[in-house]
TrEMBL record:
Keywords: Cell membrane, Membrane, Transmembrane, Transmembrane helix. The chain crosses the membrane at residues 12-30, 50-73, 79-103, 115-139, 145-175. Pfam families: Chromate_transp. It comes from Novispirillum itersonii (Aquaspirillum itersonii). This is Chromate transporter. InterPro entries: CHR_Transporter, Chromate_transpt. GO terms for molecular function: chromate transmembrane transporter activity. It is a multi-pass membrane protein.
Length: 178
């Protein structure tokens, strides 16, 4: 069994490398890889714990990457929570500082344009992969498929605030309907 320090170190390294790829969609786009690393590769948390932490971070006010702090805590206590948070905040913050400092030198050049054009499909693809992975994990029964389809339809064809759909899903889940 790994010690908390060893687990925290592995989380720090893996999440820091992942956070360097968090372009456009942010850390949320990397959640499938985080889930695989935490639940399948190392089995430090269960799929259920991961989904619950992810969902809680999405509905709670504040940064939506906080699910990583929660799963870091579940895997290695306070040191795991700190490692996960620092790994997700540190590298992108450093890149942002460097971009602010040196970015104006390439914005008008062809390199800056190529970078911006390359990042757009990457961001869309990462968000699609995240949506697909979370859907496959969370939607498993016929009632869940129906609720999922209805929620997607409402989101696509209306301007209803998604919080209402989350509330309805929560009530139906609490009543064991889905």
């Amino acid at each position: 069994m790994d010690s908390q320090w060893s687990i925290a170190g592995q989380i720090l390294l893996h999440f820091a490398l992942l956070s360097l790829m968090a372009i456009g969609g942010g850390v949320i786009a990397l959640s499938p890889e985080m889930m695989r690393f935490m639940t399948e590769t190392h089995q430090w948390v269960s799929h259920q714990v991961f989904v619950e932490a992810f969902t809680l971070a999405q509905v709670a006010p504040g940064p939506n990457f906080l699910f990583a702090t929660i799963i870091g805590y579940r895997a290695a206590g306070v040191i795991g929570a700190v490692a996960a948070t620092v790994a997700l905040v540190g590298p992108p913050a450093l890149l942002a500082v460097l971009a602010l400092r040196y970015g104006n030198r390439v914005v008008g050049r062809s390199l800056g344009t190529r970078i911006r054009l390359a990042v757009l499909p990457l961001s869309i693809g990462m968000m699609a992969a995240t949506s697909w992975s979370l859907t496959l994990m969370a939607v498993q029964t016929i009632p869940q498929i129906g609720l999922f389809a209805a929620a997607v339809a409402v989101l696509v064809w209306t301007r209803l605030n998604p919080l209402w759909l989350i509330a309805v899903g929560g009530v139906l889940g609490a009543l064991k309907i889905v």
